[in-house]
């Protein structure tokens, strides 16, 4: 079972090439994206926070693989 720290670790290691990009990576990106969206809904203070371009690319890859 993943905890919050593990999601960051999985994505970070996948982006840095320390681990393969796999379903765990895509799941972790999705969890972190959902958490960020919840934060944005709670306060405008978080409105300009975004993922890095590399993490955004992972999120897009996950959506494409889910549709195929």
Walkthrough of the structure:
The protein has 68 residues and is mainly alpha-helical. It has one domain (4-67). Helix content is 71%, strand content 0%. It contains three helices and no strands. It has helices at 4-16, 23-42, 53-67. Helix 1 packs across helix 2 (23-42). The radius of gyration is 12 Å and the shape is globular. The mean pLDDT is 86.
Structural key phrases:
68 residues, mainly alpha, 71% helix
Helix/strand layout:
Layout: H1 4-16, H2 23-42, H3 53-67
Helix pairs in contact: 1-2, 2-3
Short description:
The protein is mostly helical and 68 residues long. The protein is 71% helix and 0% strand.
Number of helices: 3
Q: Structural class per helix/strand content?
A: mainly alpha
- Averaged pLDDT, please? 86
From the spread of the alpha carbons, the general shape counts as globular
Biggest sheet details: none
Low-confidence stretches: none
The amount of beta strand, in percent, is: under 5%
The tally of domains stands at 1
Report helical residue fraction: over 70%
Q: Give the strand tally.
A: 0
By oligomeric state, this entry counts as single chain
The helix-strand sequence is HHH
CA gyration radius, whole angstroms = 12 Å
Report, as a whole number of angstroms, the end-to-end distance.
Answer: 26 Å
């Amino acid at each position: 079972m993943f905890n919050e720290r593990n999601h960051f670790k999985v994505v970070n290691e996948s982006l840095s090439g320390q681990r393969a990009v796999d379903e765990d990576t895509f799941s972790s990106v999705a969890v972190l994206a959902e958490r960020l969206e919840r934060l944005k809904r709670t306060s405008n203070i978080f409105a300009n926070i975004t993922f890095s371009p590399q993490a955004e690319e992972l999120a897009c890859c996950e959506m494409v693989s889910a549709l195929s």
